[in-house]
Write the structure tokens for this entry.
Amino acid sequence: YPLLSALKGPKMPLLWVFVLTGYIGIAYYMMGTYLPNDFIATRHLSIDLVMWITVVTSVVYGATSPLFGWFSDLWGRKIMLYVPIILLLLVTYPMFHWLNTGDTIQILLAEGLFACLVAAMTASFQILVSELFPTEHRYSGMSAAYNVGNAMFAGTTPMIALYLVGAFDTGYAPAYYLMIASVITLFIIWKMPETRKAKYFKE
């Protein structure tokens, strides 16, 4: 029973991975799923244009991920989480202003910046999730926290974003959701250890 095995191990890594998975999932699904659909439904952009915007965003995300992974090896996992989360907290509202009202170039710039920040977090996170757990609980702990976080937050992001837009009657509501999630994530992970020099196996 993988879940029972995970619960027998250290509890804080489960919380950290759950929260980080949920947060990065919110940011990624907002960038890659909610916004393209919103461009079509609300901004009335053509499907062809939105597809090209999505392709460019995906290329930026994929191309910058190895670079940010290298940075996390040089400077540490935590700094490569804290910096993009703090930057995302600061730039989310201005970014959404361009996404809601800007022209094609401004949308591309905003989505490109969004992709860089999400890539920076993801590159460090993908390594961190395994380094947080001791060997005997690694697979069970990582998979349990990761999948529950994704199911609860990442997959529900488009639905929650649409609900918030309708409930508050503003296209900036998803930005507030992401900003609140940023603050909560920073608060929960501030005691998380640096794992850059962690050993994968017992000697």
